[in-house]
Design goal:
9 strands, globular, 7-stranded mixed β-sheet, two-stranded antiparallel sheet, alpha+beta
Length: 408
Amino acid sequence: MLQQTQVATVIDYYNRWMTKWPTLQELAKAKLEEVNEMWSGLGYYSRGKRLHEGAKKVVNELEGQVPKSAADLEKKLPGVGRYTAGAIASIALGEKTGVVDGNVIRVFSRLRMIGADVSSPATMDKFWELANELADCERTGDLNQGLMELGAMVCTPKSPKCSLCPLQETCRAFAKVNLEKKQAAGRLISRESDQCGLLDIECLADACQWCLPSDEPWDKSLGVQNLPRKAKKKAPREQMAAVTVVCKLGKDSQQQFLLMKRPEKGLLAGLWEFPNFDVKGEAEISTNSEDILQRLKNNHSVEVASAENVKTVGDVLHLFSHIHQTYCVTLVSVTEQNIKVTSQRPWQWLTNAEVNEAAIPTAMKKVFSACMKVLEGRNDVQGKKRKRNETGQSDAKQRSIDSFFKCK
């Protein structure tokens, strides 16, 4: 759960998880659907699936015994990588092996003035080399936890607490900052003190692979925050999808909503969603009721004989790690006798309360929230209308992040 997710977010999920499945044996008996429901909202859903697969493998193939070494953990359990294997082996099993996570990378980058791109395999191998050198000690698990905690609490990405750092005297990045401060104050410093006893022979090499590249020089205003150095992120790609939320009014006047299951592989694998399809741009988005119902039939095998109401809800925005997704949402209200679903995909009708408990991604929860506000006649979110360009089409980039939708 803590992979790519902060502790504060995880705590509640962890407590509920351990209450429901306190042992590997209990987790192995669970259905994937239950696991996805419990994981809903944490993101990176493949983690929950792999945790479930790992529990089943331990119970069914490894006689209930978790592997006892970092190498076997990584080799035999799905979803367990080098870091997770090292953490479990050193902290729980006492193996003398290092760990490298984002916090440790930051600490090592600053301690050793490593300015190479931290995402490159060669740089990661260097960090693991350093971690394993340190791990050859009496209390490896405590050391690894201490390094991670140091990065999380003291050697932080922003506003690091260098004055409180127990490794301050051996930190090359701090020494460089301190030297710059003295130079700025106009003090005379000898060559010996300039080097602060920290200069590494690697730094004298031409085009040193561990130093900051020449085209990205040290920025004095950033201090130790020059490190670690990360490659520039690619801008998330823009994607758009048309979503149709179908609301059925049953004989008991209870509202039910149609959800369909995503494929078992790929993004958001195995989760439930409202019927939708990708579009290349707003030109493919129709607000015509007949067009919407026809596309619902063609794309999802959902046939609506007659709709009580077809309403444009507006746009719901969601940021995935690599995708800027816009959902153009339409709400279709039907009666039970006027709809027929023949889709080959798994599908189900859920009540409002059931939707909120189902294994649906956060993006679809936003879509559902927007639709419920329309159904309830609420107008408590003030959206900004999109600007129109000279062709009359909306500019997809001109959106308000804090406004999920606009009502029409």
